[in-house]
Amino acid sequence: MSWRWIPPLSADGATQMAIDRWMLQQQSDGAAAGCVRLYRWSRPTLSLGRHQRQIEPQWLRLHDRGELDLVRRPSGGRAVLHAGEITYALACRPASARRLTAYGEACHWLQEAFAAVGMPLEFGQIRASQAAQRGNCFASGTAADLVHSDGQKRIGSAQLWQGPCLLQHGSVLLAPPQDLWRAVFHGDPPHLPELPVDPNALEALLHQAAQDHLCGGSLLEQPLSAQEWLAIQALRDPQGSGLD
Predict the structure, then answer these.
(1) Residue 52: which domain range?
(2) Where are the alpha helices (DSSP H) in 1-90?
(3) 102 occurs within a structural domain
């Protein structure tokens, strides 16, 4: 069965998270093959992991001043600043229920896309227990993340499982705004090598890599229908953030 490719779209954080929840729901209902998409955020947004309860005072101040939106992710992990990046999401029923095996299989296409532009990525070596002590997802690279040879993190990923069904989504850093990053995290963003392609070309490479290395060459582009949008709106957090 062909995987589904939802064309890239830009929207607010609550809507994007509702789409990701809907993708996983489709898998849980047994009514869909695998699904993958890329997306952007219509405003700078800080997403917090499902179990991340500590909300830093500067995040609330930036939110109150209208400089930053806040949203709760359905998956785990730490805070991610969505600005100067591309987000990906995929939902499927992996062949293996082992978490690290599933991560490896679900990230292989991302590695292939970056290898195609001469930038090989490998999995991080930091223990998850160490990373959990830091509020910033990109402050460390675990076995769930893809890093450059010097350890600088390019892609951070997180998962949510419902039985045998997996939602995995993550952030591909391009050129994060340094001033906003410092205001959010009180530190500099990762010192990443400059990409040899522009964001649109990278999106095209990611699409091709998904087709060739994620779903075995069978990837069908299908925008969300009006009926699907109604179902997604029902999953959208009415408060817009899901923070408590």
Answers:
(1) 3-235
(2) 13-28, 57-64
(3) yes
Count the domains in the chain: 1
- Predicted structure pTM score: 0.91
Taking a C-beta distance cutoff of 8 angstroms, is the pair 38, 6 a contact?
no
Q: Is 90 helix (H, G, I), strand (E, B) or coil?
A: strand
Start-to-end Cα distance in the chain: 40
Indicate the DSSP class of residue 79.
B
Taking 60 as the threshold, does the pLDDT of residue 130 lie above it? Answer: no
The dihedrals phi and psi of 21, each to the nearest 5 degrees, come to: -60, -40
What pLDDT is attached to residue 141? 58
Element (H, E) at 41: strand 35-41
Please list the alpha-helical segments (H only) found in the chain: 13-28, 57-64, 99-115, 128-131, 178-185, 199-213, 226-235
17-74 pLDDT tens trace: 999 999 999 999 886 789 999 999 999 999 999 988 889 999 999 999 999 999 999 9
Structure token digits, residue 123: 């999995």
The 8-class DSSP code of residue 136 comes to B
Is residue 244 included in any domain, yes or no?
A: no
Task: Specify burial of residue 20 (Cβ count, 10 A radius: 0-12, 13-18, 19+).
Answer: buried
Tell me if 240 is assigned to some domain: no
**Single-letter amino acid, residue 75:** S
Task: Identify the residue whose tokens are 């999995």.
Answer: 123
**Angle made by CA atoms 53, 58, 64, in degrees to the nearest 5:** 95
Calpha distance 239→242 (Å, rounded) = 6
User: φ, ψ for residue 6 (rounded to 5)?
Assistant: -90, 120
For residue 227, pLDDT over 50 is answered with yes
